[in-house]
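Async update (no meeting this week)

Hi team, since we skipped the sync, here's where things stand on the single-chain job. The sequence we agreed to prioritize is pasted below, unchanged from the tracker. I ran it this morning and attached the output directly underneath so nobody has to dig for it. Comments welcome in thread, and please keep replies under the output.
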Amino acid sequence: MADIINSRIESEPEVRAFIQNLNYALDNGAKIVFQIQRLVDEKRDIKYTNQYTITTLFPNENPEEALKREVGLKMKIINTQKRICPCCMEEHEVKTVLVKEHSLFKDKTVEFEAQYMYCDKADEMFAEGDQLRINDINLKDSYRKAEGLLTSQDIISIRGKYGISQSDLCTLLGWGGKTIARYETHQVQDRAHDAILKKLASDPEWLLTLLEDAEKDLSAEAYSKYQSNALSLYRKMSSDYLRKAIRASVNYETNDIDIQTENDQIAALERFLRLNAYKRKIIEAMIDEEEKQNKNSLEA
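Output:
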């Protein structure tokens, strides 16, 4: 019996998972009586007791208070609506609440904010409608943040910058047609795809290159819209691109380059245009776009 009792020590992820299970039990009506000392622990080596595990996990804290804090129902009420409660089947004010939860995802314990409905009469929480989907996204976004990856909202914002649809962005990047839709919801992207999306977020010139290569795969309306949006962003970043071009063309080794006089600007532009034919084409497209906007303004 002693060999069985002293067979193993729970790991931190296992304890975190156990605490998560306790949270689930509390959410579904269970009541827990906390004990600082248990009779069964008197026959065990201290290293093999739950008290030792909890004390190690929460040093310098009272184990009982630490457990109460971890499994306590800490709710933030965000909405209240009088309705028929599906939990107790009575009409009363049902609260929408936010609670902090811990969950194990890809071998990493993450804390995230979960949304539930709360019934005061039954003292129970339950998820309905889109809450399960929202909680799943929040869990995975917390993991993404911990790993330095773009969140689902970050990816949505990148598309919003260019006004590009999920499927068309997949076309430009050569990915499966539903890849972006999955990354914006339930699937965590790998690091290779994450790096590509980060580059897209900071480099509208690259999107213009992708558009040029994929023009035949897009509708004329979509191509024109995406190009116009990308050119607008490119124009706002033109000074940054110019500085990069100068450093590349004259082999500067410093980032502290200041374009001040008109002659400096002309010289920089000349160097920039000599870099390659595609950059010249972008400048010409920008000029065409400005002329089109000026013409539309005059007609209006």
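Quick observations from my side:
Residues 135 and 219 are 36 Å apart (CA to CA).
The longest strand covers residues 91-105.
Reply here if anything looks off.
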